[in-house]
Amino acid sequence: MSYGLLKGKRGIIFGALDENSIAWKTAQRVHEEGGSFVLTNAPIAMRMGTINQLAEATGSKIIPADATSLEDLEKLVNEAVEVLGGKIDFVLHSIGMSVNVRKGRSYTDQKYDWTAKGWDVSAGSFHKVMQVLYKQDAMSEWGSIVALSYMAAQRVFPDYNDMADNKAFLESIARSFGYFFGRDKKVRVNTISQSPTPTTAGKGVKGFDGFISYAEKMSPLGNASALDCANYTVSLFSDLTRKVTLQNLFHDGGFSNMGVSDAVMQAFEDQ
């Protein structure tokens, strides 16, 4: 069902890779709600995914950009404003990567040049995106910027590895830059702490299948899907949430406030 929440609004969506990704689902929902946008991802990621299909279905232009490169981001923002015909109303940062996770290095045995690369892609890029938008005065008043996070930023999930640190840094950047964006430009900045979701990136974490089953049993409403997250993101892009900023918003079926559930206890008692 469409409500026309984003009619006439313009944006940039980072990170759509394939139909399993939250950014992909968000792009579809934004399109259904009347918004227009450009899609962007790193050139190497675009070769791995099927983003052209999404662009065709939503009538969107693809502008490749390395989100860790200020030069690429400056070109992206300039071209997006030109293509869309005005300032940007919404941005989704759906980017995350850990070389240590990919290469099977444990948290206690990190290769630090890999750690630095993961930080730059997963968190530093968010600061760079906002700095470019801020300096170019490219955001409309009451615009909305959202990045995707995970509860490992606050609690220990051993196999999430250095991505937990990356997400903690991401959330801090959202608060710190969000202050200046709100004060100077009337722009909102928030992060969404999403349920474990079977995206391409999520499934790369060791023990992911077991944990997603555990989270489903722990959460009173069950895990939030990628489509659920897309709907929530649309609400944050809309004018209905104009005074929501500097927040890390848990979107996890209640998992973040649970200690234990009957279903989890029963699983142990049945052993």
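That was protein one. Protein two is written in the same sequence-then-structure order:
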Amino acid sequence: MRRWFNLVIPVIALTAVLWSCTKDDLCSGETPTTPLMIIEFLDYTDRSTPKPTDDLAVRLRDTDSTFVYSGISDVTLALPLDTESDQSLFYLINEANSVENLNVVTLDVYYQRQDQYVNRACAFKTIYTNMAFESDQTPVSWIRDIELLTPTVEDASVHMYIYH
């Protein structure tokens, strides 16, 4: 009888714990949270053709040792914007592993933040509005032009084109 009792008590306790969780207690991966700024890389000469980068690294400008991404050779990039500041500063380094040919362009993104309540488990998400940017690209830098498509980052659509 004691053996049966030792088995039933843990099963009842586990059932009670699992039964007491509500949908709001777990933040599902499908729940929209703070969006990333999506950048698409396009060919400068044929502005509608996607063009992948060559070994791209993205570094936070405020911190020399913090890489956001490295070794990317893709046509899209998702950058996290700072949720505690109205500005995000990035170094975009093309051909990052090339010692003699360091192609660095800075990208300063300015915005206003709006926090929106999601639910009890996920808490808040940040929406970025009134976006603007500055860049130090020149006619000889690897980035030839930048186009901001929308002044608001609130979903997973493309927000900026970079032509190279």
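The longest strand covers residues 103-119. Keep this in mind for the problem set.
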